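G., the chain you wanted modeled:
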Amino acid sequence: MKHTIVICGYGPAIADAVARRFGAEGHPVALIARNAQRLSDAVASLQADGIRVQSYVADLGDTAAVSRVMEDIRADMGPVGILHWNAFSDIDGDLLSTAPEALSQSLAVRVVGYIAAVQAVQPDLEVTRGAVLATSGVMAFYGSDIDSFAKDFGALAVSVAAQHKATGVLTQTLAQHGVYVGEVVVNGFVKKSAGSVQHEASVDPEDVAEQFWQMNAARTTHSMIFGGKLSFGAAS
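Predicted structure as tokens:
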């Protein structure tokens, strides 16, 4: 029996591809997002493909809501085997024009909600020898070329960098409890995502989902860069 994968921050790009990849392999899928209609449409589409799936409406930047929804999922679908963190606030604008409240919300989703979700399902992950999988972005890294690319996405860049650090720390912390942590750092804009409307998209979400599947199966590496938007050194 395969345990439930909880996909936090469902959307039509990476999250949908991950749901289909893991669901096709027999994992029950729990989807979390704020948009009820989007979730309803996703459930119908995934069920049509034979995937066992349920959806939950929640604000992943609200720690109380995170705790409640994780309890609901465990009650409805059994122990959590994989937590996939794909949630973020879609905020454009540089650090001089972004409202402090928007930056705070971005960090609340990318980092605070993320940690709250891990804490909520840690007992299940330990029992199932499960995994935390995180979608990250190239703006998390240092370098003048990256900072130049990221300057128009200030709040997003700062919050994804904080999430990247949190993932690195979780990798070391959860290893002591037999839980795997894997991160795919997306180097480019993803097809079908909100960013692909305004920017040239070069990354297929299905390819990212495959990277998550392979990483979780092998469990030999914890962070990898996927895509070729910017050229720089490899992740550690």
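The two ends are 33 Å apart (CA to CA).

Shout if anything looks off.
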